[in-house]
Design goal:
The protein is built from six helices and ten strands; from the N terminus they run βαββαβαββαβαβββα. With 235 residues, the chain is an alpha/beta fold. The protein has a single domain (6-234), classed as Class I glutamine amidotransferase (GATase) domain (Rossmann fold, 3-Layer(aba) Sandwich). The two termini are 16 Å apart.
Length: 235
């Protein structure tokens, strides 16, 4: 493997029937060509991520759609590594939900924080059913000026598509966003759709699925930004 090769870990359980999983390799290939670099990716099945997994071997991490994952703890372990070790990270759809959950548990210290899809009776379900399902829906999203995501899109307003039924529980949103986890994207109703971490070179999570643009031959700006962040770190 060449020294300039970037290795990306895809956190999630690969399913060839999932549209996002079909799009992700295409998106990474397009981003690699745009950056004129070699990008190799590896699917990390969540039930195979443990204390012995060589996470240090990867330059960047992408927690992908199609949750619930086979092993939530495996997914959270990899997300925590990316957050603590300052490795570029992108979370989309389920990756957004689990990035928020990992932050709640390991930064805020909410040991009882849960995902409402896997533990609907939890008293602190920081991820809960959306008031309106976003399965195969699209909407406009307002981005915070100067944020990583706004810089990637070079715009303060974008339109993206979803395939999800869960998002951040409004009951916990204010407490979740009081430290370095920042809201950077809201939909037309003002609901939270994207977050970033302060003090991290690149840690972005979106409830929407930007990777789907690759199926239309369009380079997704956030995937390009992820690869660029990995290249900067490696150089």
């Amino acid at each position: 493997m060449e020294a300039s090769t970037l290795r990306i870990a895809l956190i999630g359980d690969y399913d060839p029937q999932v549209t996002a999983h079909q799009a992700i390799p295409l998106a990474l290939d397009m981003a690699a060509k745009h950056a004129n670099t070699d990008v190799q990716f590896e699917w990390l099945a969540t039930d195979r991520i443990n204390a012995s997994t060589a996470l240090h071997d990867f330059d960047g991490f992408w927690c992908v759609p199609a949750s619930p994952y086979r092993d939530m703890d495996g997914a959270l372990r990899a997300i925590r590594f990316a957050r603590e070790q300052q490795r570029p990270f992108l979370g989309t759809c389920g990756g957004f939900q689990h990035a928020v959950l990992e932050f709640a548990r390991n930064v805020l210290g909410w040991e009882d924080a849960e995902h409402g899809e896997t533990n609907p009776e939890a008293t602190r379900a920081v991820v809960s059913p959306l008031s309106c399902s976003l399965v195969e829906a699209a909407d406009s999203i307002q981005l915070v000026e100067g944020s990583l995501i706004a810089n990637a899109y070079e715009s303060a307003e974008i339109v993206e598509g979803y395939h999800c039924r869960y998002g951040v529980n409004p009951a916990f949103e204010r407490e979740l966003l009081t430290r370095q986890l920042c809201a950077v994207g809201h939909d037309t109703l003002g609901d939270l759709r994207a977050v970033e971490l302060k003090g991290h070179p690149f840690f972005v999570a979106t409830l929407f699925q930007p990777e789907r643009a690759a199926l239309k031959g369009i380079l997704p700006p956030l995937v390009r930004a992820l690869i660029e962040a990995c290249a900067r770190r490696k150089s």
